[in-house]
Design brief:
With 285 residues, the chain is mainly alpha-helical. It is 61% helix and 5% strand. It is built from 10 helices and 6 strands. Strands 1-2 form a two-stranded antiparallel ribbon. The protein has a two-stranded antiparallel ribbon with strand order 3-4. It has a two-stranded antiparallel ribbon with strand order 5-6. Strand 3 (151-152) and strand 4 form a beta hairpin.
């Protein structure tokens, strides 16, 4: 009995510590939402789950240490709900970020991003005109394109140096025109648009050397945001999967501890069932 309760107490303390990475992941996504990804609603479920695990772990720890049946009962039900919610959230995260990746560009270290490569609910939400106005404004205000500029020897870096850079998906999608437009490089955010290589890509027409416009209205920019979001969510999901496995183990052990507490409340010796307790002793002659 004591061994089991001590074990569940230790595991709940460990779970409390593991809730910190979940909460940290939500805060990290929140920071990226304000500065990079610009999607401000996806981080809140993670933050709520992290806080819930932290609180219920303390309740489970107290219930195991003080053999409080009510706290253990509350802990088991709430933790079960948290596990179900976390499973659903992990599945949701992988489903909405399932498709989409950058396309390799010949003689370039960076990739180009295309909106048709993505699909599903998240793409429809990001690509909607009403929502994209907020996202594009956020990307513009973050200064990601302005910060992408480099100076070498007092001059902007050459085209050869720029083509060898591994740009982020947002830098590639929002701060430069698609490579198939075949614009001539001037600097990181200025291109000579005299010759349009691909009229089939409307982003070539949307590109503007105005530093307040660039390719913020391009589909490539939307795809770049989706690619950045996909990368961020996959990193957080790996942490969530590890925590989920540990939570399931803790919950199973907690069930055993709860059964032991009920047995003690009913004055049942450890290992003795109710049937054995109720069975009358055999009369000795």
């Amino acid at each position: 009995m004591r061994t089991t309760n001590h074990l569940i107490g230790i595991l709940n303390f460990l779970t409390f510590l593991l809730s910190i990475p979940i909460l940290g992941g939500g805060i990290w996504l929140s920071t990226r939402a304000n500065n990079t990804d610009c999607i401000r609603f996806l981080q809140w479920p993670i933050i709520v789950i992290g806080v819930a695990i932290m609180i219920i772990s303390l309740a489970g720890f107290a219930g195991a240490c003080y053999r409080n049946t009510f706290l253990m009962y509350l802990y088991l039900w709430v933790m079960f709900i948290i596990i179900i919610v976390l499973i659903g959230f992990i599945i949701f995260a992988f489903v909405v970020t399932d498709k989409g990746s950058g396309r390799t560009v010949p003689n370039r270290a960076y990739k180009d991003y295309y909106l048709p490569d993505y699909s599903g609910w998240l793409k429809d939400r990001v690509a909607s005109d009403e929502y994209w106005r907020k996202i594009s404004s956020c990307v513009r205000d973050s200064g990601v394109c302005r910060k992408s500029g480099r100076v070498v020897g007092g001059y902007p870096e050459s085209a050869e140096m720029y083509y060898l850079r591994k740009l982020s998906s947002i830098e590639s999608g929002c701060c430069k025109p698609p490579s198939e437009c075949q614009f001539a490089y001037v600097n990181e955010t200025t291109w000579d648009t005299a010759n349009i290589g691909s009229v089939n890509n409307r982003d070539c027409i949307r590109w503007n050397n105005d530093q307040e416009q660039l390719c913020y209205s391009c589909n490539s920019c939307k795809a770049g945001v989706l690619a950045s979001l996909r990368k961020s969510w996959r990193k957080v999901s790996v942490i969530n999967i590890i925590v989920l496995i540990i939570l399931v183990i803790v919950w199973v052990v907690a069930c055993a501890a709860f059964r032991n507490n009920r047995r003690m409340d009913n004055d049942e010796p450890y290992g003795q069932t109710r049937m054995e307790k109720a069975k009358p002793a055999r009369i000795q002659f």
